[in-house]
């Protein structure tokens, strides 16, 4: 960030709070306290009415306001994503207030940014959201795909599939992205497969936006694609807790039951599955006996209790 941009950003930051400490500004912009002192002095010399109180920080004279702030293209797109996430993660009333505030912020966008948000509005969907896990190591791919969607550019990628684990190079025409079950997914037209595919963002090992443009007119909307997938298969997220000594018994059969990922937590491993059949999955789990614990969903635990009762009754 050059000095002019930093001075503008400091002034915007001062408007956002009643009092701002120099250390807070230094941490945000990654500069020394001496640099912040010099920048604030430059703003004062230029006529900005800044009040500095020892031990308190800086504040602007009451009533002083900047003219409307100009947002960058990336910042405008980030607001759209935030709106989608907040809609699913906050309560109805809080979500309403956030939307009203966002409308006021959007009102100061340039016409080109307003048009951009309208154009990409339907290419981002949040189906289910956990606010503590909405973004992970897929964030770089997310930004690249968001840019490609807004610019209608083909993306050259290297993608690693789950089962079997294979690495392929693909050219994709991104259509939209959606968030579900703690992951971001890309829906795109794959030029290699000559068909539409869904890709998990964190499984792209490489990605590069090319200069090749494509037309969205020939592609279905993200919503119509999601409706089609939902109609074909209703997936359930299932999490099993598996002690270390039992992992070896699940290795050969996990992929047949919708295995997605796993995470080491202390002396156990939490395994995540996506499966459309609660009945089929519970009958697999019951064969594992005392080697797993069902963490979620409750409907799976309830069905396991019922099935165990039915077995006991049958055996007299």
Give a written overview of the molecule.
This protein has helices spanning 3-16, 22-29, 33-45, 73-89, 92-106, 111-120, 139-151, 222-232, 278-287, 298-314; strands at 50-53, 57-60, 124-126, 153-160, 167-180, 183-190, 195-200, 204-213, 236-243, 259-265, 268-275, 293-296. It is of the alpha+beta class. It folds into three domains: 3-60, Arc Repressor Mutant, subunit A (Orthogonal Bundle); 73-232, no CATH class; 236-314, Alpha-Beta Plaits (2-Layer Sandwich). Strands 3, 4, 5, 6, 7 and 8 form a six-stranded mixed beta sheet that branches. Helix 1 crosses helix 3 (33-45), helix 2 packs across helix 3 and helix 4 (73-89) packs across helix 6. The model is unreliable at 131-135 (pLDDT under 50). This is Putative DNA-binding transcriptional regulator YafY. It comes from Algoriphagus antarcticus.
Please describe the structure with a list of short key phrases separated by commas or semicolons:
four-stranded antiparallel β-sheet, Alpha-Beta Plaits, 3 domains, extended, Arc Repressor Mutant, subunit A, 316 residues, WH-like_DNA-bd_sf
């Amino acid at each position: 960030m050059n000095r002019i941009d930093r001075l503008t950003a400091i002034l915007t930051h001062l408007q956002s709070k009643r009092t701002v400490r120099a250390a807070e500004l230094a941490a945000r912009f990654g500069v020394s306290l001496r640099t912040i002192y010099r920048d604030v002095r430059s703003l004062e010399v230029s006529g900005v009415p800044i009040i500095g109180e020892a031990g308190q920080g800086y504040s602007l004279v009451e009533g002083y306001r900047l003219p409307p702030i100009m947002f960058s293209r990336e910042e405008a797109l980030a607001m759209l994503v935030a709106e989608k996430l907040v809609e699913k993660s906050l309560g109805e009333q809080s979500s309403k207030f956030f939307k009203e505030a966002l409308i006021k912020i959007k009102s100061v966008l340039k016409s080109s940014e307003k048009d951009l948000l309208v154009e990409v509005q339907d290419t981002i969907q949040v189906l289910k959201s956990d606010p503590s896990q909405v973004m992970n190591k897929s964030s770089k791919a997310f930004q690249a795909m968001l840019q490609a969607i807004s610019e209608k550019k083909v993306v050259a990628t290297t993608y690693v599939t789950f089962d079997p684990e294979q690495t392929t190079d693909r050219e994709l025409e991104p259509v939209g992205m959606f968030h579900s079950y703690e992951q971001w997914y890309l829906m795109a037209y794959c030029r290699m497969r000559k068909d539409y595919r869904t890709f998990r963002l964190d499984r792209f090992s490489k990605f590069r936006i090319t200069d090749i443009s494509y037309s969205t007119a020939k592609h279905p909307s993200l919503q119509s694609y999601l409706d089609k997938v939902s109609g074909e298969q209703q997936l359930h997220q299932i999490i099993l807790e598996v002690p270390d000594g039992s992992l070896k018994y699940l290795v050969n059969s996990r992929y047949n039951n919708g295995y997605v990922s796993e995470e080491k937590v202390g002396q156990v491993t939490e395994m995540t599955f996506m499966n459309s059949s609660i009945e089929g999955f519970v009958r697999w789990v019951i064969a594992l006996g005392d080697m797993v614990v069902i963490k979620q969903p409750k409907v799976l635990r309830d069905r396991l209790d019922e099935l165990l009762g039915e077995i006991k009754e049958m055996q007299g």
